[in-house]
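Q: Structure tokens for this one, please.
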Amino acid sequence: MATDGLITVRSNFGPKETMSRLEAEIKAKGMTVFAHVDHAAGAAEAGLELRPTDLIIFGNAKAGTPLMQSVQTIGIDLPLKALVWQDASGDTWLSYNDPAWLAKRHGADQQVQPTIEALSAALGALAKKATTSP
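A: Here is the predicted structure, written as tokens:
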């Protein structure tokens, strides 16, 4: 899955369980879940079919604010988002934006590098807990 700036991890679980595990981990880390967007449900309401595709929007002002203080346009990509989706083969995937790519995209200064590295590590850990068994 080579999409610029997007990290995609295969899950050992189905879409619902992957999302449940991800949301539990987000909350356990003290982050706020702002919203879910169930794209498949929206498609069904429009009379269209879409494999499971669920977006969760979450974050923490303590981590996001320094990034926006560096370059306010990064606010278009915050809060953080993760997409749990199922491909045509029935495999489940979790995708999220690479914080380093976001920083580069918006031209964030080097002062926020520690924040970017911490976000990258946190997202990687969330993804691992959501997609693999302990």
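A few notes: The domain at 6-131 is CATH 3.30.310.70 (TATA-Binding Protein). The helical segments are 15-28, 39-45, 61-70, 99-106, 113-131.
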